[in-house]
Predict the structure.
Amino acid sequence: MNFEFKLVSRLAPVAKYPPVPVDRILRGLKRFRKKVYPKHRELFHKLALQQRPQALFITCADSRIDPCLLTQTKPGELFLCRVIGNIVPRYPESIGGVSATIEYAVGVLGVPDVIVCGHTDCGVMKGVLNPEALKPLANVSAWLNHAQPAREALVKPDSNLSDPEFLLALTERNVIEQLKNLQTHPAVAARLEQGNLKLHGWVYDIGRGIVTTYSPRRQKFIRVRTVKPRKIVGGRR
Ligand SMILES: [Zn+2]
C-alpha cells in the first residue's frame, strides 16, 4: 500500500496553498451580505430566536464534505458535529467536544435522527492503516486509537481486495463501530430506550456523488433509496 507516502506528502508545508486565500473568503462574505441574506431574511430572522434541527449529522472535518449541499438542507436543519474520521469515542472514555455535542443535540434539542457519515478517500482511515506516518502528530495519533476497533474488526485483507476496496471496507466498518459507540452515550441510550431516536450510518462517495447507508438487516451498505412522491391516478392536474 502506498498510503504512507500520500499521507506524508499531505503533511508538507503550506507553500502549496494559493496566495492570500482569505481574500476569496472575504469576498464570499460580502456576496452573502448583499445577495444571499436579503433573499432569506425571513428565515434568518426566525433562526435568530430558535433552532429545531431535524438531525445530528456527525461527519469528518474533510473540506470536501458539505453536509448541507449533500442533503439539500437549509440553515437550522442539521446540527453538525465535524471531527476527523467521524469518530465518536465510547462514553466516558473521552469526554469532550464530541460527547458534549451529542448530549446537547440528543438530550436538549431532541433531534429525532443521528447520522454518522464517513467518506471515500478519508486521510484518517489511511492513517489507521499506517499509524507510523502520523507518529509525529501526537493528538491525531491518540485520536486514531478510537478507530482501531474498526481496523481490528476487519478480516485481514486477502488477495481479492485491492487497496481502494480495503480502504472502503475500513471506512464502512468505522461507521458501524462509531454507531455502536454512540449507543454508549447516556443521552443516546435513553432516547433509544424511549424508542424515539434513530441512528443511521452513511458513506459518501465524493467522486461519484453517491451515498450508501448501512442496513443492519442485510449487514452491508446499500444505496440510499428515496421515497418517490405518490402519483395521483385520475386526479386533477
Ligand atoms: Zn475523512
